[in-house]
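Hello,

Our lab assistant flagged a job as stuck in the queue for most of the afternoon. It eventually completed. Since we weren't sure the result was trustworthy after the delay, we are filing this so someone can double-check. Below is the sequence as submitted and the structure that was eventually returned. Let us know if re-running is recommended.
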Amino acid sequence: MTLSRVLTLLFAGTLLLAGSRASAQLTMTGAGATFPYPIYSKWFDEYAKVDPSVRFNYQSIGSGGGQTQIIAETVDFGASDGPMSDQNLARAPGKILHIPTVAGAVVITYNVPGNPTLKLDGPTIANVFLGAITKWNDPAIASQNPGVSLPDSDIIVVHRSDSSGTTYIFTDYLSKVSPEWKSKVGSNTAVKWPTGLGAKGNEGVSGQIQETPGALGYVELIYAIQNKMPVAVVKNASGSYVSPSSESVTAALASARIPDDFRFSMTNAPGPGAYPISGATWLLVYQKQSDAEKGGKMVEFLRWALTKGEDMAGELNYAPLPQGLRDRVLKRISEIQVGG
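-- returned structure --
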């Protein structure tokens, strides 16, 4: 055999080996909620160590986008902080399962001189977003914060401009504490805001508030913590002012009534230690997975997330699911049909 022939065979073998290695790594695509993006990013990085053959490509485009893309089957999984409506589920070509993962807090954050920790009740928050309270030193705010120096300046409301599960949680809460909000605006992933500036994603809202003196808006807790932004202590249904934390979200989750399809709300929970603007987040997957390889890998990942992954929630200020709920979700994961 000539040297050139040997080199040709060696080169062909190298290409074949490289091709087999490339094909061995599977990419799972997903899109949706920004609310759980920090914990999902952590999970995807850690799971790559468990199964190096799988990589996740997740785009945090908002819950509305996640629902749209899973219905259109342009992604392998969607993510949403608001459960899908019956109407949206009916649009899907197959049965979509809601897989709850963690719960978290939507917080009121702001930009005022000194950034004091403010106390706020539900009606006051609703009236700010309705445009009925427009000044920082309004009596409704001042009376809850005696001794705090509040400026005689305008409140600049900041809200989400995209379809968002964070918005769903927040407006679901406002609809429970304000009859006027419920009748005029209501709850959804996107609403017609009575006032304010729009920004895209939790990232965009956080940035807009930081750049705008007098601004006030709502974001998921981890975004406020990462950006060192102040958060309000909110009065709950039991009459207690509660700070947002993984513990106070856990207290809210403990009182939630969770149906068999796992579509539920946990805002304005009755427990004395419950943070009232709390919500769960879901991964959205088809019960029947047509791609056997991807479906099998998705089931393996979901099982890992509901066991090992849950233990990572607290360090990112999310609340893990209680064990009883985890067991129910794991049973649902076992019902996913792979390859057919």
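-- support follow-up --
The delay was a queue issue, not a problem with the job. The result is valid. Residues 6-12, 14-23 have pLDDT under 50 and may be disordered. The first strand starts at residue 26 and ends at 32.
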